[in-house]
Write a structure and sequence with these properties.
By secondary structure, the chain is of the alpha+beta class. 57% of the residues lie in helices and 18% in strands. The relative contact order is 0.07. The protein binds adenosine-5'-diphosphate. The site of adenosine-5'-diphosphate (ADP) has 22 residues, from helix 7 and helix 9.
Length: 426
């Protein structure tokens, strides 16, 4: 599913950016081409003004002058003196003659000035022309009309736009190459960007799926016991029925505790879980927890001791009930994983900046390979699997609560064996 979403998101974001890029680059290309064309046409008009005034100053137009002008400016020149083509143009190729004729027809159709206007003197006009002869060729054309020896003297000058077109072609291919590279780069970027964007969502969904699978697995065991006890109690004698009902009740309580834990974790995931911070006297809280766990430890002949600082601690801003829950998880684990006759020490200290609460036992300890995993959801060591009431959620909940207080929870080995859990609250 994520692959599909990733592909669609990448295509959408890449497509939109590419669309904007193409519109902008084509717009820029169009404007730049128009600028190039208009500046070259203006420069042609300037050249023609000079050339035409030069022409008017010549008393006799020689073939040498025409050939030299043609060569210098890479022009094609056609001269009509009093309606008769100049002898100079006899040497033009058939194709050139046809071209001149076409341009002249076009000029007469579009721009030819009434003969009456000629009385105002000479004029020249410039216009672009595209020939459709053997292949498409573009020219700038200048037609100059003046009076000479009391007749009309018409000169047509064609300037082929090969170099301008070549320049435009180079500019276009450069743009296309850059556009293609930019399109590839944008799609690659969109692909990686959306992948990074979706990664946390994908991981979250994976975690949720694992959580649901593990939760269903954990709920199945007490549920199976409840169902089998319920069906067995139907045929059981009165004395036995009581035993089945006790089992149903204890498994029901187990399920309810598990559901509470799962709800708490789900709420932390949704960020719908709030902690109520208020000033609390942690020494009192630690002492209360110690007193609550003393009988539990005594049942297993475990010596539970408490160490408190000599001076009263400053009040710490925290959610008392949640911190009590953390201590209960740690002490419950210590009692569970410490053999009979062991010892557990609950201590509180303050270093002027942080408050540390530690639970130190001389129990079975945690191998280094397992230490990073014990805070994961539903992680249990093989040994603890056999213990009822241990779902592998306790430390994970404790870690979430401590994180919500911007604190840390650490696990180390107790010197001589066992584990020490330390909660540091800022
Ligand atoms: P559980 O409900 O199984 O105790 P926790 O999340 O509280 O789940 O603990 C995860 C695992 O960490 C336990 O299964 C156990 O292997 C290990 N563990 C936790 N506390 C201790 C301890 N004090 N001594 C040894 N192992 C411990």
């Amino acid at each position: 599913m994520f692959q599909k979403v990733h592909f669609r998101l990448a295509a959408l974001s890449g497509g939109i950016t590419v669309f904007i890029l193409l519109i902008m680059s084509f717009g820029y290309l169009y404007i730049s081409e128009q600028g190039l064309k208009s500046s070259s046409f203006i420069s042609f008009q300037n050249d023609m003004s000079t050339l035409v005034s030069n022409l008017e100053q010549q008393t006799v137009i020689t073939h040498e002058w025409l050939a030299k002008t043609e060569n210098n400016g890479k022009y094609l020149i056609y001269v009509i003196d009093n309606g008769i083509p100049f002898l100079y143009n006899e040497r033009d190729t058939e194709e050139q003659k046809l071209l001149f004729r076409n341009v002249w027809d076009y000029y007469e159709e579009q721009f030819a000035v009434e003969p009456a206007l000629l009385s105002y003197g000479a004029y020249h006009i410039e216009f672009p022309f595209s020939s459709e002869l053997s292949y498409r060729d573009d020219y700038y054309v200048c037609v100059s009309v003046s009076e000479r020896n009391s007749g009309t003297f018409q000169v047509m000058i064609l300037f082929p736009l090969d170099s301008l077109n070549q320049q435009i072609r180079i500019q276009r291919s450069l743009f296309f190459t850059l556009d293609i590279l930019a399109v590839i780069a944008l799609f690659l970027f969109a692909w990686h960007f959306t992948k990074r964007l979706l990664k946390p969502l994908e991981e979250n969904q994976k975690r949720q799926t694992q959580f649901i699978a593990a939760a269903s697995h954990e709920l199945r065991t007490p549920l199976a016991v409840i169902l089998s006890c319920a069906s067995a109690s139907g045929q059981a004698a009165d004395t036995e029925r009581e035993h089945f009902l006790d089992s149903i009740q204890s498994e029901g309580l187990r399920m309810s505790r598990l559901i509470d834990d799962m709800l708490l974790l789900t709420n932390t995931d949704n960020h719908s879980w709030t902690i109520r911070m208020e000033p609390a006297e942690l020494d009192t809280l630690v002492l209360d927890t110690f007193e609550a766990f003393e009988p539990v430890a005594a049942e297993k002949s475990i010596r539970l001791s408490v160490v408190l600082p000599e001076n009263a601690l400053p009040a710490v801003s925290c959610d008392q009930e949640r911190i009590r829950q953390v201590l209960a998880v740690l002490l419950h684990n210590s009692v569970s994983y410490t053999p009979e006759g062991g010892r557990i020490r609950l201590s509180l200290s303050y270093d002027g900046k942080n408050t540390c609460i530690s639970v130190e036992d001389n129990g079975i300890g945690i191998p280094d390979s397992e230490k990073p995993r014990i805070f994961e959801r539903f992680y249990r060591s093989d040994q603890s699997r056999s213990q009822k009431g241990h779902f592998g959620l306790g430390l994970c909940i404790a870690a979430e609560i401590v994180r919500a207080h911007h604190g840390h929870i650490l696990v180390t080995d107790t010197p001589g064996g066992g584990s020490t859990f330390t909660v540091i609250l800022p």
